[in-house]
Amino acid sequence: MTSFDDIQLEMNGAVAVIRLTRPAKRNALSDGLILALKHTFSNLPPETRAAVIDGEGEHFCAGLDLSELQERDAGQGVHHSRMWHAALDAIQQGPVPVVAALHGAVVGGGLELASACHIRVADESTFYALPEGSRGIFVGGGGSVRIPKLIGVARMTDMMLTGRVYNAQDGDRVGFAQYLVPAGQSLAKALELATRIATNAPLTNYALMHALPRIAEQSSDHGFFTEALMAAIAQSAPDAKERVRAFLEGRAGKVQKS
């Protein structure tokens, strides 16, 4: 186990479990914690093939630590926001897929953090909110880019204008999470998924993280060409060739209805 201020990293096989450890503050994001996340995801152990982000205590993350909110001029504000962008980009654009284990508050910056992950597992205690609008501020950690891709611009606008809070069931329905599990089980499910993801061909995982989002934003013509290049590169990897050979020789299981 590796510990930084307010964060822990523990390896579970090939899965890095990164835990926010400020339960007394509902895992609110201080600048130190943001920088620790950036350092952690930029320096994952070499054996890491997938990662899980979890929050200690009753809440995943209740957002920005407002006790650290300072008066800044416009230039300082831009640089502070860009610091958050760099940290959350290290998660979304990092070397391995990341699964968020959500529970309790996923609010403000906590929702921005969750939206930087590739898969989100929520338990029934989870709730989502963006209270920045009522506090006279605006999202600054990449939320205006990432969150609309999950739920749409209109829903995010509503949340910020009215203070609307989504519970776990409604959040699952609109797209905040891909999985909804009973209370207390989000970490176990996230670990199960991350362990499965870790067995995939690394280049395929990398393509899904880095190529697929870009293809989705390209024109059809450009997207088809990028897809062709990525498919050719992925299938040329020795690991991919062995996996296809195993399937053709009956050594790999077929897809079954769950």
Radius of gyration: 19 Å
Record the strand order, biggest sheet: 1-2-3-4-5-7-10
Percentage of helical residues? 40-55%
Distance between the termini: 35 Å
DSSP summary: helix tally: 10
Structural class: alpha/beta
Which sequence of SSEs, written as H and E, runs from N to C?
EEEHEHEEHEEHHEHEHHHH
Q: Identify the overall geometry.
A: globular
Largest sheet: 7 strands, mixed
Q: Quote the beta fraction.
A: 15-25%
Low-confidence stretches: none
Determine the mean pLDDT. Answer: 92
Number of strands: 10
Describe the structure.
It contains 10 helices and 10 strands. The chain starts with a strand and ends in a 10-residue tail after the last helix. The strands form 2 sheets. It has a 7-stranded mixed beta sheet, sandwiched between helices.
Concise synopsis of the structure shown:
It is built from 10 helices and 10 strands.
Topology:
Elements (H helix, E strand, L loop, with lengths): L1 E3 L2 E6 L2 E6 L10 H12 L7 E6 L18 H19 L5 E5 L2 E3 L1 H7 L3 E5 L3 E3 L13 H9 L1 H10 L3 E2 H7 L4 E3 L4 H12 L4 H16 L2 H17 L1 H11 L10
Parallel strand pairs: 3-4, 4-5, 5-7, 6-8, 7-10
Antiparallel strand pairs: 1-2, 2-3, 8-9
Helix pairs in contact: 1-2, 3-4, 4-5, 8-9
What are the main properties of this structure?
globular; 10 strands; 47% helix; three-stranded mixed beta sheet; alpha/beta; 258 residues; seven-stranded mixed beta sheet
